[in-house]
Design goal:
Strand content: 5-15%
Order of helices and strands: EEEEEEHHEHE
Helix content: 25-40%
Largest sheet: 2 strands, antiparallel
Low-confidence stretches: 1-5
Shape: globular
Distance between the termini: 38 Å
Length: 135
């Protein structure tokens, strides 16, 4: 297997895999003495970065662009993502993906209230609680 971390080291003529949009959240809690950072350890069965500590997150699913956020991104966050080449819809999908992945991996919900209850066709969002709240 080629080393996926260093595409320049390929000598067999194969192409590097096409990058996929992914996002993560860095969650921390500060006490008087310490800062705790939320991380998880990837399984040794993963082909990409096995047995590595990572922040919760992952790749953007198609459904992430169809979930209406309870609140829009802050203006400064949206501006930074737009400068990076995202469309406003893709910027929101990246944020929603990070929230969804955090929920799937840890059970933590980062949510705001919807003005009216709603139901999703995507099961994970119903488990998240999109009847009354959303990412």
């Amino acid at each position: 297997k080629p080393n996926r971390a260093v595409a320049e080291s390929r000598t067999d003529g194969s192409k590097a895999p096409r990058p996929k949009d992914a996002s993560t959240l860095i969650l921390y809690r500060q006490s008087r003495k310490n800062i705790e950072i939320l991380m998880g350890e990837r399984s040794g069965r993963h082909s990409f970065m096995p047995n590595t500590y990572v922040f919760p997150g992952g790749r953007v699913d198609a459904s992430d662009s169809r979930i209406p956020p309870a609140e829009d991104l802050r203006e400064d966050v949206m501006a930074r993502l737009l400068r990076g080449g995202c469309t406003p819809a893709r910027a929101r999908a990246l944020a929603i993906a990070a929230i969804r992945e955090t929920f799937e991996e840890t059970g933590l919900r980062l949510a705001g209230n919807y003005p009216q209850p709603r139901k999703s066709r995507v099961q994970v969002w119903n488990e998240f609680g999109t009847n009354t709240c959303g990412p």
